[in-house]
Amino acid sequence: MNKYVKNDEKLSEKNKKFNQLEWVKIMNNYKNCAEEVIFKELIYV
């Protein structure tokens, strides 16, 4: 997750302050992507 946050300007603290709904939407999307990779490659293999 830290890698995603560092690479995406929309996830900056400034954007978090001014556009909270978009910030939450993007964070949830990255979280779901990371979980999907972990579940598919580490748990269900």
Overall pLDDT score: 84
| Radius of gyration, taken over Cα atoms and rounded to an integer in Å | 13 Å
Number of domains: 1
Number of helices: 3
Instruction: Return the string of H and E elements.
Output: HHH
Unreliable spans are none
Strand content is under 5%
**In which range does the helix fraction lie?**
over 70%
Provide the structure class.
Answer: mainly alpha
Number of extended strands: 0
* Oligomer status: single chain
Instruction: Choose one word for the global shape.
Output: elongated
Instruction: Give the CA-CA distance, first to last residue.
Output: 22 Å
Structure description:
It is a single chain. This protein is mostly helical. It has one domain (2-43). Helices cover 80% and strands 0% of the residues. The longest helix has 24 residues, at 20-43. It is elongated, with a radius of gyration of 13 Å.
Task: For this entry, give a set of tags.
single chain; mainly alpha
Provide a quick synopsis of the model.
This protein is mainly alpha-helical.
List the helices and strands and how they pair.
Layout: H1 2-7, H2 13-18, H3 20-43
